[in-house]
Design a protein that fits this description.
With 272 residues, the chain is of the alpha/beta class. The chain folds into two domains: 1-17 and 193-272, no CATH class; 19-180, Alpha/Beta hydrolase fold, catalytic domain (Rossmann fold, 3-Layer(aba) Sandwich), CATH 3.40.50. The chain has three helices and seven strands; from the N terminus they run βαβββαβαββ. The termini are close together.
Length: 272
């Protein structure tokens, strides 16, 4: 089956964003100051620091641009005990930077860290510690040739490099990552704010080649106003998140409505 999101009837405010700040000088990774330090005292953070070794790389792409990549490898990984990779590519920073500074969480939940993966975090092209030009929601180029790039080629090149240079993996790489921002529901070129209290129709297709699910698999869809600390805080107003001031942040109640006239749903056509 392929996943296509059917129209979702939502009522909440969205936020507008601009590209992240210009990349920091890559000559001293450890000196970079992250916008958010995700490690905090606690059993989960202590278990990650005790159970994983952190590495940092500048992974070369086909056009020569290098993408900053942090890799956390289980300490018991060996030729006899290999692990799959679980990768996140993000424009929101893979902070904290420096091999002696660890995240407070590596997977969607603590269970992933206990299960054991080689966790990979990468600043996308042009964001934070990665080189190149940042393009918000960079369009896919199905006819690219030679050194032409898009997010899919950067992902492909990154995985190829990781499989060749990171030891003790089992050859399997999975991805999990960022939310789809509601402000792009009409187009990527003209972000549109939600109107509080007014249902909005959100519908977009997902590529059937890269989003195919076997019969019996369960899918989870989250509709929320923020995903902090994995993603930036939401001021709850339509403004530039990256330059938002303290006075921009407002208290807000978010609701998702479902009625017979305007139902929420997920369409799952069968791919034959």
């Amino acid at each position: 089956m392929l996943l296509r999101l059917a129209p979702l009837c939502l009522a909440f405010s969205a936020t507008a964003q601009t590209p992240p700040p210009a990349p920091v000088d890559l000559t001293d990774v450890a000196a970079a100051t992250p916008t958010v330090t995700l490690e905090a005292p606690g059993p989960r953070a202590e278990a990650i620091r005790a159970g994983y070794t952190k590495y940092e790389y500048r992974v070369p792409m086909r056009d020569g641009v290098r993408l900053f990549t942090a890799v956390y490898v289980p300490n018991d990984a060996s030729a006899a005990k290999t692990y799959p990779m679980l990768m996140v590519r993000t424009p929101y920073s893979v902070a904290p930077y420096g091999i002696d500074r660890y995240k407070g969480g590596l997977g969607p939940t603590e269970a992933y860290e206990k299960e054991g993966f080689i966790f990979v975090f990468q600043d996308v092209r042009g964001a934070h510690m990665s080189e190149g030009e940042f393009v918000d929601m960079r369009p896919h180029n199905p006819t690219k040739r030679g050194s032409e790039v898009d997010e899919s080629s950067d992902t492909h090149d990154s995985i190829d490099w990781l499989l060749a240079h990171v030891e003790h993996h089992n050859g399997k790489v999975g991805q999990w990552g960022e939310p789809f921002r509601g402000r792009y529901r009409e187009s990527y070129e003209q972000p549109l704010a939600f109107v509080p209290g007014q249902p909005a129709r959100v519908a977009f297709p997902i590529n059937d080649v890269f989003h195919t699910f076997k019969r019996g698999h369960r899918l989870m869809i989250q509709v929320q106003s923020s995903w902090f600390p994995l993603v930036d805080r939401n001021p709850q107003v339509f403004t530039d998140i990256y330059s938002a001031q303290g006075t921009d942040f407002k208290t807000a109640t978010q609701r998702v409505y479902r009625t017979k006239e305007m139902p929420s749903g997920v369409g799952l056509p069968v791919l034959r």
